[in-house]
Amino acid sequence: MGVQKKTRKFATMKRMIGQRDARLKTNKLRAEQMKKATENRDGVVREVPSAPTQMFFTYNTALQPPYPTLIDTNFLSHTIRAKLPLLESLMDCLSSTVRPMITSCVMAELEKLGPKYRLALQMARDERFERVTCDHKGVYADDCIVDRVIKSRVYIVATNDRDLKRRIRKVPGVPLISVGRGRYFIERLPDVPEK
Q1: Cα(first)–Cα(last) distance of the chain, in Å?
Q2: How many whole angstroms from its chain centre is CA 54?
Q3: Which of 164, 167, 195, 192 has the alpha carbon at shortest distance from 178?
């Protein structure tokens, strides 16, 4: 019963202040600079792109039957996979006549995809579809469709591509059509009855 021996602790360190600690002088200066920057940013007026006169709230008054519909590669392949007749299904979805349009970039993309998409290519070569020639360089169909829609908002875009949908949703007043569960769905078109 003597005095208990104290054991040495190995690999212990003194506690240190972290580099991001708010008590350090450099971090205090940085925090003040950030605060000033946010105050200055709130006072700046940003340029907002003006909406065309044909836009009334979120509806596009320039869209009138027969609806000009830009068709994407993805939409054609999903239509074939769902075994839907393209023109009849579009007319049922929109309750009106439709002018399906295919850009030369979409045709080039279908030709590049090869024999796997030969049915989609046959469908795209149908005489009932209107051909739209592109006046830009490159054959990336998504950029072509987005540019065409931004220039004139008189189109309905038919696509199942997520990225293209996300880009077109940023353009006000442009409706989207997609294939799902054996039928076509439309987003953002006023006065269309849902079945």
Answers
A1: 91
A2: 22
A3: 164
Do residues 114 and 145 make contact, with C-beta atoms less than 8 angstroms apart?
no
Task: Report the distance separating Cα 86 and Cα 143, nearest Å.
Answer: 23
| Torsion angle (degrees, nearest 10) of CA 174, 179, 181, 184 | 60
Mean pLDDT of 142-164: 93
Question: DSSP assignment of 96-109, as one string?
Answer: S-EEEEEEHHHHHH
Cβ atoms 88, 123 nearer than 8 A:
no
What are the structure tokens assigned to 161, written together? 């591509």
Sheet holding 183-187, edge to edge: 130-132, 98-103, 67-71, 156-158, 176-180, 183-187
Bridge partners of 177, per DSSP, are 158, 186
143: exposed, middle or buried (C-beta count within 10 Å: 0-12, 13-18, 19+)? middle
DSSP 8-70: PPPS-------TT-TTSHHHHHHHHHHHHHHHHHHHSPPP-PPPPTTEETTEETT--SSEEEE
Residue 193: its pLDDT value, please?
A: 47
More confident residue, 195 or 62: 62
What span, in angstroms and rounded, lies between the C-alpha atoms of 87 and 82? 14
For residue 187, what are its two tokens?
A: 């987003």
Q: Does residue 47 carry a pLDDT above 70?
A: no
Question: 121 near 110, Cβ under 8 Å?
Answer: yes
